[in-house]
Design goal:
258 residues; single chain; alpha/beta; Rossmann fold
């Protein structure tokens, strides 16, 4: 039996304490709602973290004990320290999974890993969103029908300034006519990254059972896949797996003279 997947749900936890409408939907914060919604998955061991905690909730010991990190941010992207973003980036490169939610597309963490603007078009009008499953055989789409219906959502539209996804799982259509690549994956170093866009704070999207199913599927998909790549190192000839026959003359190594 595999050990549980160690999940950390990070949320800046700003809107819920400043906006009464958001607090009504998420009285203990989006992070708590996600933790509760994912609580029925017995293969997860879940903790939460927020921006106002020591070391912004993500000290090295927390990240080292995290298999998959969920990231929700919006109003406080600039408050995230470069040091924090770099620490998360390095853990992803070393094999930790990352799920970036909704407006986390513009976080320092996601932009560092994508290397692009990650900008998009948007409109907040409470319109209907259909999240179409365009890759039904993908593990993140397991258990879903043809699409997810979300009654009220913020429109995110193309163009979306991301690198071409390794895999595109969902494409959203909005009542105003726009479409958006709303669920996409990448590999960065030894880590897997999944971006999933539904989740605007003024609508109860993280109470939607199919949205929670996608996130749970994403956690299982993004979990570490094996050992991280070792740091590059010099391997002397006497340590080679096969005998190395000298071919005449010594070989200069970087930093040595000829």
């Amino acid at each position: 039996m595999q050990p549980p997947i160690r999940v950390t749900i990070w949320n800046e936890f700003v809107h819920e304490r400043q906006n009464a409408a958001v607090a009504e939907i998420y009285p203990r914060g989006i992070h708590a709602a996600l933790a509760e919604g994912l609580g029925g998955n017995t293969d997860f061991a879940t903790r939460t973290a927020t921006l106002d905690e020591p070391e912004q909730g993500l000290p090295p010991e927390v990240l080292d004990a995290t298999d998959v990190l969920l990231w929700w941010g919006h109003a406080a992207h600039d408050a995230v320290l470069d040091e924090t973003a770099a620490r998360v980036q390095q853990r992803v490169l070393a094999g930790m999974g990352l799920i970036v939610l909704h407006s986390g597309h513009f976080s320092k963490v996601f932009k560092r890993l994508m290397g692009t603007s990650c900008a998009l078009c948007w409109r907040e009008a409470g319109e209907r969103e259909r999240v179409w499953v365009v890759n039904p055989g993908h593990p993140i789409a397991a258990g879903l029908g043809a699409c997810i219906e979300i009654g009220q959502s913020e429109m995110y539209g193309e163009p979306f300034g991301i690198p071409a996804p390794d895999e595109l799982v969902f494409v959203s259509w909005f009542q105003g006519g726009e479409v958006f690549r709303s669920g996409a994956t990448w590999t960065r170093g030894s880590g897997r990254v999944f971006y999933f866009s539904p989740g605007h704070e003024v609508y109860p999207i993280y109470h939607h059972p199919e949205v929670l199913r996608v996130i749970a599927n994403g956690i299982r998909w993004a979990r570490p896949q094996g050992a991280a790549a070792d740091t590059p190192r010099h391997v002397p000839a006497e340590q080679a797996r096969e005998r190395v026959e000298p071919r005449g003359g010594s070989v200069a190594h970087p930093g040595q003279g000829a």
